[in-house]
TrEMBL record:
This is Prepilin leader peptidase/N-methyltransferase. It comes from Sanguibacter gelidistatuariae. It is a multi-pass membrane protein. It catalyses: Typically cleaves a -Gly-|-Phe- bond to release an N-terminal, basic peptide of 5-8 residues from type IV prepilin, and then N-methylates the new N-terminal amino group, the methyl donor being S-adenosyl-L-methionine. Keywords: Cell inner membrane, Cell membrane, Hydrolase, Membrane, Methyltransferase, Multifunctional enzyme, Protease, Transferase, Transmembrane, Transmembrane helix.
Length: 259
Protein backbone atom coordinates (compact mmCIF):
# COMPACT_ATOMS: atom_id res chain seq x y z
CA UNK A 1 0.00 0.00 0.00
CA UNK A 2 1.56 3.28 -1.10
CA UNK A 3 2.00 6.40 1.00
CA UNK A 4 -0.15 8.30 -1.50
CA UNK A 5 -3.14 6.03 -0.86
CA UNK A 6 -2.69 6.31 2.90
CA UNK A 7 -2.45 10.11 2.62
CA UNK A 8 -5.62 10.23 0.50
CA UNK A 9 -7.57 8.22 3.06
CA UNK A 10 -6.21 10.37 5.88
CA UNK A 11 -7.35 13.49 4.02
CA UNK A 12 -10.74 11.90 3.38
CA UNK A 13 -11.05 11.11 7.08
CA UNK A 14 -10.20 14.69 8.04
CA UNK A 15 -12.85 16.00 5.65
CA UNK A 16 -15.46 13.54 6.93
CA UNK A 17 -14.48 14.47 10.49
CA UNK A 18 -15.23 18.11 9.69
CA UNK A 19 -18.72 17.09 8.55
CA UNK A 20 -19.16 14.92 11.64
CA UNK A 21 -18.69 18.01 13.78
CA UNK A 22 -21.75 19.46 12.06
CA UNK A 23 -23.63 16.21 12.70
CA UNK A 24 -22.59 16.20 16.38
CA UNK A 25 -23.78 19.77 16.86
CA UNK A 26 -27.03 19.69 14.87
CA UNK A 27 -28.52 16.21 15.07
CA UNK A 28 -29.19 16.26 18.85
CA UNK A 29 -30.94 19.60 18.30
CA UNK A 30 -33.13 18.22 15.52
CA UNK A 31 -31.55 20.51 12.92
CA UNK A 32 -30.68 19.81 9.30
CA UNK A 33 -27.06 18.88 8.62
CA UNK A 34 -27.32 20.31 5.10
CA UNK A 35 -28.57 23.85 5.59
CA UNK A 36 -28.08 26.56 6.64
CA UNK A 37 -24.32 26.80 6.15
CA UNK A 38 -22.13 26.49 9.23
CA UNK A 39 -21.96 29.63 11.35
CA UNK A 40 -20.41 30.72 14.62
CA UNK A 41 -22.86 29.97 17.47
CA UNK A 42 -21.64 33.12 19.21
CA UNK A 43 -22.08 35.85 16.60
CA UNK A 44 -23.99 33.96 13.90
CA UNK A 45 -21.55 34.90 11.15
CA UNK A 46 -21.17 32.36 8.34
CA UNK A 47 -17.90 30.45 8.53
CA UNK A 48 -15.65 31.29 5.60
CA UNK A 49 -14.23 28.52 3.42
CA UNK A 50 -10.67 29.35 4.47
CA UNK A 51 -11.70 28.96 8.10
CA UNK A 52 -13.20 25.53 7.49
CA UNK A 53 -10.03 23.57 6.68
CA UNK A 54 -9.82 20.60 9.08
CA UNK A 55 -7.43 21.10 12.01
CA UNK A 56 -5.35 23.75 10.21
CA UNK A 57 -7.98 26.50 10.44
CA UNK A 58 -8.45 25.86 14.18
CA UNK A 59 -4.70 26.25 14.68
CA UNK A 60 -4.37 29.36 12.53
CA UNK A 61 -7.35 31.01 14.24
CA UNK A 62 -5.87 30.08 17.62
CA UNK A 63 -9.12 28.39 18.55
CA UNK A 64 -11.19 31.57 18.26
CA UNK A 65 -13.85 32.89 15.88
CA UNK A 66 -12.40 35.31 13.34
CA UNK A 67 -15.24 37.78 13.88
CA UNK A 68 -16.26 37.75 17.54
CA UNK A 69 -13.22 35.96 19.04
CA UNK A 70 -15.46 33.46 20.81
CA UNK A 71 -13.52 30.30 21.72
CA UNK A 72 -13.77 27.30 19.40
CA UNK A 73 -13.89 23.99 21.24
CA UNK A 74 -10.95 21.60 20.91
CA UNK A 75 -13.57 18.98 20.05
CA UNK A 76 -13.45 20.14 16.42
CA UNK A 77 -9.82 19.29 15.61
CA UNK A 78 -9.95 16.20 17.87
CA UNK A 79 -12.92 14.76 15.95
CA UNK A 80 -11.25 15.56 12.63
CA UNK A 81 -7.93 14.00 13.65
CA UNK A 82 -9.59 10.97 15.19
CA UNK A 83 -11.61 10.32 12.04
CA UNK A 84 -8.52 10.73 9.88
CA UNK A 85 -6.57 8.25 12.02
CA UNK A 86 -9.46 5.77 12.06
CA UNK A 87 -9.81 5.90 8.27
CA UNK A 88 -6.14 5.00 7.92
CA UNK A 89 -6.45 2.17 10.47
CA UNK A 90 -9.53 0.79 8.69
CA UNK A 91 -7.62 0.95 5.41
CA UNK A 92 -4.71 -0.95 6.96
CA UNK A 93 -7.07 -3.53 8.48
CA UNK A 94 -9.09 -4.27 5.33
CA UNK A 95 -7.02 -2.98 2.44
CA UNK A 96 -8.64 -1.91 -0.82
CA UNK A 97 -11.39 -4.51 -0.55
CA UNK A 98 -15.14 -4.69 -1.00
CA UNK A 99 -15.59 -4.52 2.79
CA UNK A 100 -13.70 -1.24 3.11
CA UNK A 101 -16.56 1.23 2.42
CA UNK A 102 -18.82 -0.45 4.96
CA UNK A 103 -16.24 -0.25 7.73
CA UNK A 104 -15.25 3.31 6.85
CA UNK A 105 -18.91 4.22 7.28
CA UNK A 106 -18.93 2.38 10.60
CA UNK A 107 -15.88 4.31 11.78
CA UNK A 108 -17.53 7.61 10.87
CA UNK A 109 -20.83 6.99 12.63
CA UNK A 110 -18.92 5.47 15.55
CA UNK A 111 -17.11 8.76 16.11
CA UNK A 112 -20.32 10.79 15.84
CA UNK A 113 -22.33 8.53 18.14
CA UNK A 114 -19.54 8.36 20.72
CA UNK A 115 -19.26 12.13 21.05
CA UNK A 116 -23.03 12.66 21.04
CA UNK A 117 -23.60 9.99 23.69
CA UNK A 118 -20.87 11.49 25.88
CA UNK A 119 -22.37 14.96 25.53
CA UNK A 120 -26.12 14.34 25.75
CA UNK A 121 -26.43 10.67 26.81
CA UNK A 122 -28.36 9.79 23.68
CA UNK A 123 -27.86 7.73 20.52
CA UNK A 124 -30.06 9.58 18.01
CA UNK A 125 -32.42 7.59 15.80
CA UNK A 126 -31.57 10.03 13.02
CA UNK A 127 -28.14 8.38 12.79
CA UNK A 128 -28.77 4.82 13.99
CA UNK A 129 -31.92 3.87 12.09
CA UNK A 130 -30.84 5.02 8.58
CA UNK A 131 -27.58 3.18 9.22
CA UNK A 132 -29.53 -0.10 9.19
CA UNK A 133 -30.20 0.48 5.49
CA UNK A 134 -26.74 1.83 4.68
CA UNK A 135 -24.85 -0.95 6.46
CA UNK A 136 -27.10 -3.65 4.98
CA UNK A 137 -26.55 -2.25 1.49
CA UNK A 138 -22.78 -1.91 1.88
CA UNK A 139 -22.37 -5.42 3.27
CA UNK A 140 -24.62 -6.80 0.53
CA UNK A 141 -22.41 -5.15 -2.08
CA UNK A 142 -19.37 -6.62 -0.32
CA UNK A 143 -20.94 -10.08 -0.42
CA UNK A 144 -21.71 -9.71 -4.13
CA UNK A 145 -18.18 -8.49 -4.82
CA UNK A 146 -16.42 -11.19 -2.83
CA UNK A 147 -18.93 -14.00 -3.28
CA UNK A 148 -18.70 -14.59 0.48
CA UNK A 149 -22.37 -15.10 1.27
CA UNK A 150 -21.53 -16.90 4.50
CA UNK A 151 -20.08 -13.63 5.83
CA UNK A 152 -23.34 -11.85 5.00
CA UNK A 153 -25.30 -14.59 6.77
CA UNK A 154 -23.06 -14.26 9.84
CA UNK A 155 -23.60 -10.50 9.77
CA UNK A 156 -27.35 -10.98 9.78
CA UNK A 157 -27.21 -13.51 12.60
CA UNK A 158 -24.79 -11.32 14.56
CA UNK A 159 -27.11 -8.34 14.28
CA UNK A 160 -30.14 -10.32 15.42
CA UNK A 161 -28.32 -12.05 18.28
CA UNK A 162 -26.77 -8.91 19.71
CA UNK A 163 -30.04 -6.98 19.33
CA UNK A 164 -31.92 -9.73 21.18
CA UNK A 165 -29.30 -9.90 23.94
CA UNK A 166 -29.39 -6.16 24.55
CA UNK A 167 -33.18 -6.11 24.32
CA UNK A 168 -33.42 -8.71 27.08
CA UNK A 169 -30.93 -6.78 29.22
CA UNK A 170 -32.91 -3.60 28.67
CA UNK A 171 -36.10 -5.34 29.81
CA UNK A 172 -34.36 -6.84 32.84
CA UNK A 173 -32.64 -3.63 33.93
CA UNK A 174 -34.08 -0.58 32.12
CA UNK A 175 -32.29 1.84 34.46
CA UNK A 176 -28.92 0.58 33.27
CA UNK A 177 -29.55 0.03 29.57
CA UNK A 178 -31.24 2.42 27.18
CA UNK A 179 -33.14 1.40 24.06
CA UNK A 180 -30.68 3.42 22.01
CA UNK A 181 -28.04 0.88 23.06
CA UNK A 182 -30.34 -1.92 21.89
CA UNK A 183 -30.72 -0.39 18.43
CA UNK A 184 -26.99 0.25 18.15
CA UNK A 185 -26.29 -3.38 19.13
CA UNK A 186 -27.81 -4.65 15.88
CA UNK A 187 -25.36 -2.59 13.80
CA UNK A 188 -22.41 -3.65 15.92
CA UNK A 189 -23.48 -7.30 15.72
CA UNK A 190 -23.62 -7.09 11.92
CA UNK A 191 -20.15 -5.57 11.65
CA UNK A 192 -18.64 -8.12 14.03
CA UNK A 193 -20.54 -11.06 12.57
CA UNK A 194 -19.28 -10.29 9.06
CA UNK A 195 -15.71 -10.84 10.29
CA UNK A 196 -16.36 -14.01 12.29
CA UNK A 197 -17.84 -15.60 15.39
CA UNK A 198 -14.68 -14.86 17.36
CA UNK A 199 -14.90 -11.17 16.52
CA UNK A 200 -18.56 -11.19 17.58
CA UNK A 201 -17.78 -12.82 20.93
CA UNK A 202 -14.78 -10.63 21.74
CA UNK A 203 -16.41 -7.41 20.52
CA UNK A 204 -19.58 -8.04 22.52
CA UNK A 205 -17.73 -9.05 25.69
CA UNK A 206 -15.20 -6.23 25.29
CA UNK A 207 -17.89 -3.57 25.68
CA UNK A 208 -18.80 -4.83 29.15
CA UNK A 209 -15.19 -5.43 30.16
CA UNK A 210 -14.02 -1.96 29.14
CA UNK A 211 -17.13 -0.16 30.40
CA UNK A 212 -17.04 -2.03 33.69
CA UNK A 213 -13.35 -1.29 34.22
CA UNK A 214 -13.92 2.41 33.52
CA UNK A 215 -16.87 2.54 35.92
CA UNK A 216 -14.81 0.81 38.62
CA UNK A 217 -12.03 3.36 38.23
CA UNK A 218 -14.52 6.23 38.58
CA UNK A 219 -15.98 4.65 41.73
CA UNK A 220 -12.52 4.12 43.25
CA UNK A 221 -11.63 7.74 42.48
CA UNK A 222 -15.01 8.82 43.89
CA UNK A 223 -15.94 10.49 40.62
CA UNK A 224 -19.11 8.39 40.39
CA UNK A 225 -21.32 6.18 42.51
CA UNK A 226 -22.84 2.77 41.85
CA UNK A 227 -26.03 4.40 40.56
CA UNK A 228 -24.33 7.04 38.41
CA UNK A 229 -25.47 7.10 34.80
CA UNK A 230 -22.55 6.42 32.47
CA UNK A 231 -23.13 6.35 28.69
CA UNK A 232 -22.61 2.81 27.43
CA UNK A 233 -22.66 3.56 23.70
CA UNK A 234 -18.98 4.61 23.56
CA UNK A 235 -17.95 1.34 25.24
CA UNK A 236 -20.05 -0.67 22.81
CA UNK A 237 -18.28 1.08 19.95
CA UNK A 238 -14.82 0.68 21.50
CA UNK A 239 -15.50 -2.99 22.22
CA UNK A 240 -16.60 -3.44 18.60
CA UNK A 241 -13.40 -1.75 17.40
CA UNK A 242 -11.35 -4.21 19.46
CA UNK A 243 -13.37 -7.11 18.07
CA UNK A 244 -12.84 -5.92 14.50
CA UNK A 245 -9.13 -5.34 15.01
CA UNK A 246 -8.12 -8.30 17.17
CA UNK A 247 -11.21 -10.42 17.85
CA UNK A 248 -10.41 -13.40 15.66
CA UNK A 249 -6.83 -13.63 16.93
CA UNK A 250 -7.85 -13.35 20.59
CA UNK A 251 -10.61 -15.93 20.13
CA UNK A 252 -8.26 -18.37 18.40
CA UNK A 253 -5.71 -17.97 21.21
CA UNK A 254 -8.41 -18.55 23.78
CA UNK A 255 -9.65 -21.73 22.08
CA UNK A 256 -6.09 -23.00 21.78
CA UNK A 257 -5.54 -22.45 25.50
CA UNK A 258 -8.70 -24.23 26.68
CA UNK A 259 -8.72 -27.13 24.23
Amino acid sequence: MTAVIVALFAALGLAIGSFLNVVIWRVPRGESVVRPPSACPGCGRKIRARDNVPVLSWLLLRARCRDCRAPISAQYPVVELLTGVLFVLVLVRFGLTWELPGYLYGAAIGVALTVIDLKVHRLPNAIVLPSYIVVSALLLVAAIGTGDWSALLRAGIGGVVLYAAYFLMCLAYPAGMGFGDVKLAALIGAYLGWIGWGALAIGAFGAFLLGGAFSLVLIVLRRAGRKSGIPFGPWMILGAACGIAFGEQIWSSYLSAVM
